[in-house]
Amino acid sequence: MDWLASLALLLGLLTLLLMAGLPVAFAFLGVNVVGAFVFLGGEAGLSQLARNSASAITNFALTPIPLFILMGEVLFHTGVAFRAIEAIERLIARVPGRLAIVSVVGGTMFAALSGSSMANTALLGSVLLPETLKRGYHPTLAMGPIMAVGGVAMLIPPSALAVLLGSLAGISIAELLIGGILPGLMMGTLFLGYVVVRCWLDPTLAPAYDIPRAEGWARWRPFLVNVMPLFVIFFVVIGSMLAGWATPTESAALGSFAAVVAAIAYRALTRANLAKSLNETAKISVMILFIIVASSTFSQILAFSGATNGLLALFSQFSLSRTAVVVLMQAVLLFLGCFVDQVSMIMITLPFFMPLAKTVGINELWLGILILISMEISFITPPFGLLLFVMQGVAPKGTKLSDIYRAALPYLGLEIAVLILLIIWPELATWMPSMLREQR
């Protein structure tokens, strides 16, 4: 069987299983069973599949995933994150589009603590969206910033998806986590600028209203009490890695411990919400581990079938520059993002992208951060962006999906602009990780 037929068999079977409604992890496992039997030598191939699965999930580098997830779940289920957003709302006074700005600032802050884009969007949507609409904000301005800033959680550490990508792609997890900070902050700044300018040009989008003016200590107390301690958690996680004091696993453990201590200090931790946090952490972690098990053999099967080498040979015939190859990779990811979820994007493309990157001499860390940004963009890409459906779930009844699409489009353009900037200036992605290497 030639490489093209092998590729058609594997991807065709995968497409059929996904269309049948099988979860992503089990669809890939099904393809792996068939591929291992056909390309890895029958029963010997199935034995190899079992060995790959066992070795994949006993990798110590994956330990930050459940710890980062636990950190966000504790802050979410104990309500500590709600208090922080309310404090930020009180601090931001008379500016155009005040509540939309609260969405961006509060969402960026929670992104630095949760690592979950869906949790970020659900939290902001449930807390801020009803009040924003009640104040007469245009629905697109009420929903757009919440969806846009929700995706930033994928870039700013702690990011479980960044740990997954680093593990599967063989990229330094610490450097990938640190490298996402600057692009994430760039996006948050652009979102803020867009909201202010848009509301300044058209004040009817965000009608002004009188708010009780707190002055002095009454205004700053909620921020100092409910927000500053959470920044300490962020600095514990990131600062320990930047200073070279802790590995990603150790910093994740410190962050989880700090989150529990914060919940206890606020007298918000109960047996019920701790159990809920642990239960949700276990669910998400098991799902990710299943995905890793499925991915561990898929790339090996592609290599044995000749599909990987065949595609690499095909690309080498075109003599494309490194920049052209990177642009082509991002175009593939952005196209896939219209139809499949982020984990599927990783599992479908990494077996081809990483060997190709090594062949043409692309910086793998730079490529990894570009992949993260493309996956973030896919969160709000019509027609099947996950955060579009999360927003539909928290929006008032009767909200049309077309209205949600329109709300997301301006921010989609801003995120693509950041992606283009990082393609033109790779240093935006690699500067902070280079500081980490100097500390070692």
Describe the structure.
By secondary structure, the protein is mostly helical. The chain has one domain (3-439). Helices cover 78% and strands 0% of the residues. The chain contains 23 helices and no strands. The protein has helices at residues 3-19, 24-39, 43-57, 64-77, 80-91, 98-114, 117-127, 129-134, 139-151, 160-169, 173-179, 181-201, 217-226, 228-242, 248-265, 271-305, 307-316, 322-337, 342-360, 364-378, 386-394, 401-424, 427-439. α7 (117-127) packs parallel to α21 (386-394). The radius of gyration is 22 Å and the shape is globular. 48% of the residues are buried.
Offer a quick outline of the entry.
By secondary structure, the chain is mainly alpha-helical. The chain has helices at residues 3-19, 24-39, 43-57, 64-77, 80-91, 98-114, 117-127, 129-134, 139-151, 160-169, 173-179, 181-201, 217-226, 228-242, 248-265, 271-305, 307-316, 322-337, 342-360, 364-378, 386-394, 401-424, 427-439.
